[in-house]
C-alpha cells in the first residue's frame, strides 16, 4: 500500500512530512532511520509527522524525528514548512502547531515568508537540560559556550572562524548534555548580523537550523553580543529572529519550500 509524503525544506534543511491523521504509520526508530537514509530511503534531515491536535486551539499536532530515530521537541525550519503545507492544503494562513515544545502560532508575511512564534527560551540548567547545576551563560567547556533550550537543547559557541565545527560530533555527545545537544557556532559580524553554522543532534551539520538560530540569538543577547532583532545567515540562507522583550517569546521568520510530493511503500521499510 503506497503512502503519500511531502518533501519540503527550510533553507536547505530538508524534511519528509507524513500525515498520520488518516491512520498510524507504525513509524519505529528503525523505519524512521531507513526513510531518512540518503541512498536507501527518501532522505531527509528530519522526518515530520502530522496528527490530529489534542490541545485546545491547535490545528495540527506535529512531531519531529532525526535520521538516527531520536525525537526532537522543536524544529524551527520544519515548523515553517508545516505551516506552509497546512496553508496549501486548507487555506488556513495562521495555523497553530501543537508540538512537544508547546503551541506555536504561525502566520504568513506579505512577501510569502512564514513567521513562527517559537515560544520562550528555557535557560535554566535543568531545562536545557545539563547534567549538573552550572551557569548556562558560561558552560565549563573549552570554548566557553552558552546553552539554552527552544524545546530542544542547544549550545552556542561564539567564534571568529568555523574550525571548531569539526568538534561538533564530540560536543553533541559531551556528558554535560544528558540528552545530547545541537551545537551552534556563531560569528557576530555586527550586533544585528550573525553568521551561524550548526552541528545538529542526531543529524550532523545541516544547511540551516531554525531552533538553533533562535537559541544562538538568545545566547548572544544574554552575552550582550547581539541586538534582540538579529539577522542570522546560515549556509542555506537567512532567518530573521526577534526575541521579544515584552513577551519573552522568540519569533522566527524565513522561507518554506515545497520540493515535491511522492508516494512510498512503507512495507519495504523495517517495522
Ligand atoms: N533542524 C531543526 C532542528 C532539529 C533539532 C534536532 N536535531 C534535535 O535533536 O533537537 C530546526 O530547524 O530547528
Automatic annotation (TrEMBL):
Gene that encodes it: dapF
Active site: 75, 209
Entry keyword Isomerase: yes
Subcellular locations according to the entry: Cytoplasm
Name of this chain's protein: Diaminopimelate epimerase
Coiled-coil positions: none
Binding site for substrate: 13, 46, 66, 76-77, 152, 182, 200-201, 210-211
Quaternary structure, from the entry: Homodimer.
Amino acid at each position: 500500500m503506497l503512502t503519500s509524503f511531502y518533501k519540503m525544506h527550510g533553507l536547505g534543511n530538508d524534511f519528509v512530512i507524513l500525515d498520520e491523521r488518516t491512520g498510524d504509520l507504525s513509524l519505529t526508530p528503525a523505519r524512521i532511520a531507513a526513510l531518512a537514509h540518503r541512498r536507501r530511503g527518501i532522505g531527509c534531515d528530519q522526518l515530520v509527522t502530522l496528527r490530529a491536535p489534542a490541545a485546545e486551539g491547535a490545528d495540527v499536532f506535529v512531531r519531529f524525528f532525526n535520521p538516527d530515530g531520536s525525537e526532537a521537541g522543536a524544529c524551527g525550519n520544519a515548523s515553517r514548512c508545516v505551516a506552509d503545507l497546512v496553508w496549501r492544503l486548507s487555506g488556513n494562513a495562521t495555523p497553530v502547531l501543537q508540538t512537544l515544545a508547546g503551541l506555536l502560532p504561525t502566520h504568513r508575511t506579505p512577501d510569502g515568508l512564514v513567521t513562527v512564534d517559537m515560544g520562550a527560551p528555557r535557560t535554566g540548567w535543568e531545562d536545557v537540560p545539563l547534567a549538573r547545576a552550572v551557569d548556562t551563560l558560561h558552560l565549563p567547556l573549552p570554548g566557553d559556550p552558552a546553552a539554552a533550550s527552544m524545546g530542544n537543547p542547544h549550545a552556542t559557541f561564539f567564534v571568529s572562524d568555523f574550525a571548531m565545527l569539526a568538534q561538533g560530533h564530540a560536543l553533541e555527545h559531551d556528558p554535560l548534555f544528558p540528552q545530547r545537544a545541537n551545537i551552534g557556532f556563531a560569528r557576530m559580524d555586527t550586533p544585528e548580523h550573525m553568521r551561524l553554522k550548526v552541528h545538529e543532534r542526531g543529524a550532523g551539520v545541516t544547511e540551516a537550523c531554525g531552533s538553533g538560530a533562535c537559541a544562538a540569538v538568545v545566547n548572544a543577547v544574554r552575552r550582550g553580543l547581539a541586538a534582540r532583532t538579529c539577522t542570522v545567515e546560515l549556509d542555506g540562507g537567512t532567518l530573521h529572529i526577534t526575541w521579544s522583550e515584552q513577551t519573552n517569546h522568540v519569533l522566527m521568520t524565513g522561507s518554506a519550500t515545497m520540493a515535491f510530493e511522492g508516494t512510498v511503500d512503507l512495507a519495504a521499510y523495517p517495522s
